[in-house]
């Protein structure tokens, strides 16, 4: 689907998301780490997240912790150049919002200067001060609660959260504190469906679920997971809509086979010399100076 041949899509805004929450219209969000993925996703989704999940999805890391601000800037700039109609949100990577308000504001502001519409940061009560500082500077913030990947070491792995009374009630409290601090939406990841439903019902801002049941205001999955581009074990909450990894390998295999049997490139993939030049080239012989 090409923007150039159709009416340009209307830009998604934060007020629009709030209106959709009030009307019960579900929000669709996926990731993009480069211009190709952004162009594929943009006509379809409402929010594009340049996630620090780029670390384990694309860069070969085991988790998101090694992803730096410079890496995030690199991928954000690639996506922003496509000028998406979707709301463009950038993840604040580990250590980019843990070091004081001044540095947090500078780091998040840099994302907006590079084309992001908003930033996302992980954590609850501990991050309230940072959220307030950003919102006070007119930097829109999306919160992230539940299974927060940057806390993988504290959690002891990628485990479902909110399964005890204390942790479930703390999550609800954190959700409301983030709303009061000015977050325009919350990602709820890896929590029981009933807990996410209660959070969504009690909040006025939208919730975006990932492994949090069907009652959130919207859903997010990683682009590569939806298209089946990731190998190995997939989390319970992932539904792949095609086997992209296999499809891409099959296409590459056919191409490689054509090369090996001399079927690629064909005449339709070749450039041709003008007749008069073809004759000159065919009759060319090396001179003594070029043959040495």
Structural notes for this entry:
The chain has 292 residues and is an alpha/beta fold. Helix content is 41%, strand content 13%. It has an eight-stranded parallel beta barrel with strand order 1-2-3-4-5-6-7-8, surrounded by seven helices. Helix 5 (101-113) packs across helix 6. Its EC number is 2.1.2.11.
Order of SSEs? HEHEHHEHEHEHHEHEEHHHH
Spatial strand order of the main sheet: 1-2-3-4-5-6-7-8
- Overall morphology: elongated
- Major sheet, described briefly? 8 strands, parallel, barrel
Instruction: Round the Cα radius of gyration to an integer and report it.
Output: 24 Å
Q: Which runs of at least 5 residues are low in confidence (pLDDT < 50)? A: 1-5
Helical proportion, percent range: 40-55%
Number of extended strands:
8
Strand content: 5-15%
Class of secondary structure makeup: alpha/beta
Mean pLDDT: 94
Number of helices: 13
- Identify the quaternary structure here: single chain
Q: Gap between N and C termini, in Å?
A: 55 Å
Spell out the blueprint of helices and strands:
Layout (H helix, E strand, L loop, with lengths): L13 H10 L3 E5 L3 H7 L5 E4 L3 H4 L11 H12 L6 E5 L9 H13 L4 E5 L5 H9 L4 E6 L5 H4 L9 H17 L3 E5 L3 H10 L4 E4 L7 E4 L1 H4 L17 H17 L14 H8 L5 H4 L1
Parallel strand pairs: 1-2, 1-8, 2-3, 3-4, 4-5, 5-6, 6-7, 7-8
Helix pairs in contact: 5-6, 8-9
Subunit structure: Homodecamer; pentamer of dimers.
Keywords: Cytoplasm, Magnesium, Metal-binding, Pantothenate biosynthesis, Transferase
Function: Catalyzes the reversible reaction in which hydroxymethyl group from 5,10-methylenetetrahydrofolate is transferred onto alpha-ketoisovalerate to form ketopantoate.
